[in-house]
Amino acid sequence: MEQATDTPLKKTPLNARHRALGAKMVPFAGWEMPVEYSGITAEHLAVRERAGLFDVSHMGQIEIAGSNALEAVQRISCNDASKLQIGQAQYSGLLTEQGTFVDDLLVYKLANQHYMLVVNASHIDKDFAHIVEGITPAGDAVAVNASSRYALIAVQGPRAIDVVQPLTGIDLASMKYYWFAHGEVAGVRATVSRTGYTGEDGFEIFVPPQMADKVWLALMQAGEPVGVIPCGLGARDTLRLEAAMSLHGNDIDESTTPVEAGLGWIVGWKKESFVGSDVLKRQKAEGTTRKLVGFEMIDRGIARHGYPIVSGAEQVGIVTSGTQTPYLKKAIGLGYVPTALSAAGTELEIDIRGRRLKARVVPTPFYKRTK
Amino acid sequence: MAYPAGFKYTKDHEWIELSGDRGKVGITDYAQAQLGDVVYLELPEVGSTVKAGESVGNIESVKAVSEIYAPVSGEVVEVNAALKEKPEAVNSDPHGSWMVVIKLSNPGEADQLLDVTQYSDLVK
Question: Has the ipTM of the complex gone over 0.95?
């Protein structure tokens, strides 16, 4: 992430806690964030096998309320928010008129006529401006940037429920994936949502910023028998990539659409028109010339964001994300390739700093948890 | 972790353990801590020649790729193939994990490198 050198970095309410825990801090999206504590591999494995704790307070929250709030959300969010019940969330996209991603987001239905959008930290201001402009024709609906009202802690992993349940009266076992509830966690008013960005079961806990450290400490303590450890952005990235979850700025951006990215399932095809819908409907009907695929390296080497994908004599695409994954212990990646080269099993080459190394298109996700 | 007194160091955080006209090259504890978990090493062919300050290979951690710079000019006479199979040793034993052996073409260059006191000050 590019960073103007003279802009002071923003700090989450847990900044001092991260430092006390010995985290390596880095600039990310205008924030000073922990990239790792004990090491990306150890943190990644903890989330796959036990549980990990993430500070994701840098994420943004934009609320939309008013008698036409649903119409407003339907205009600017590509998924179909009319399907949401109160207490339910959905993954969606905020699109340009060209159908490309301004950002990806989660839409929470807090109440009738009241929604909360959780957006990427780096795009809060851009998203807010885009939303305000996009909802104006909807009538009575107001957007509020509520980001400073929330700290957000993610507890992720197969044992996440054992970390959070002792601290809350909310019955977590009966909470379905992508649902949420209001209550208390460690005596603090909280919204707990069964969501995450790791490919594991887990919860995201919204709390008032001034109470974030109290909740963090309580979670660490409650999670001690389970072996919970704090995790940074490094593990968050490798975990989401194993689960083939898109990262905005890498795998999706203002040059790519949900259809190209294999995210047709977050498009409300039955909705009336919304921002970007004309392009998406055309792409769905006619097909796209390129697609986002997952690949695995055959030759030894690690593909990284921006490396060319090659077939025959020419560059045919580009790697959008790539790493050596700690759990699968494979070099994997995502990238855009021509549709003709997108079938699983297709062999491609990745230009890794001048060396062409073989890779194979594989089905995604690379990792899928056992239920 | 203490930096070995007998090694010479670069400002780019490589070390070289000289023995006659040859030197084993690796990266320092400071460098491995900055990189994080090392997962891959790209090392040169035996017989290739390198110049001081130029790349002699790449080291990849989970999150990024970094160049390994040759502390001295010369010929690569040995490559640590065993280390390529267990690159995580760079994290656990950085000063024992040599990557290449360079036969110095200009032994005087080694005098330009940092000694242990200078290097320890640099990373303080």
Answer: no
